[in-house]
Amino acid sequence: MQLPNNxxxxxxxxxxxxxxxxxxxxxxxxxxxxxxxxFKIGKEAFTRFGPSFVASVLERGGNVFLDLKFHDIxxxxxxxxxxxxxxxxxxxxxxxxxxxxxxxxxxxxxxxxAAAMGIVPPVLIAVTVLTSLDDSNLEEMGxxxxxxxxxxxxxxxxxxxxxxxxxxxxxxxxxxxxxCGKDFVIVTPGxxxxxxxxxxxxxxxxxxxxxxxxxxxxxxxxxxxxxxDDPAVAADMITEEISEGxxx
Length: 248
Known about the structure:
By secondary structure, the chain is α/β, with parallel strands linked by helices. It has helices spanning 22-32, 43-49, 51-59, 74-87, 100-117, 135-140, 147-161, 173-180, 208-214, 223-226, 231-246; strands at residues 12-15, 38-42, 64-70, 91-95, 123-127, 165-167, 185-188, 218-221.
């Protein structure tokens, strides 16, 4: 499926990881359809509700970003990528730390499966460095570079493997864009409004306006919308911020 990316709303991805049951999740889908460009289904929602949840969102006309961060040996990830294509999602991700060979196999699997099905392949992106990590965390794990330096290295590896883009901190957008080119898709989580969200574990964050102004193609927002008194209004306010960032 071709990704929407022609207006401010299409750039907004809502992280659909509700705390309630599937009925609550579907209520959010119904409430936010038309207010966001895509619904991100991550590990929490997918583990709770399974592939049928993806089908339910698609049936309601929503586009799905499947955020499972596949990271395993190349053959396993290639088969998982095939399954993701068959689910009908618009976008899904793998983890760049799995290496070039793993990413190449995933890219090949996506192309071959989509061709066999006669569909436009979903956009395959690679996760660089989680936004919950900072330089001190990388040092603890033995890395000899900063989060920003590692993110760029992984983005280049993903691009060379044939991935369409990456998931990266908004603070890493500018150097990744410079290294990988204007057509490389950059999806940024770690988006926050001016108000602090309780229990927030994100460290490297920016506002919607800042992220888009820096060149992010899509932004992922969860709790600031989900926990709002009126999620649809909150989504519309973020869309306005995106418009301001595009006009920057």
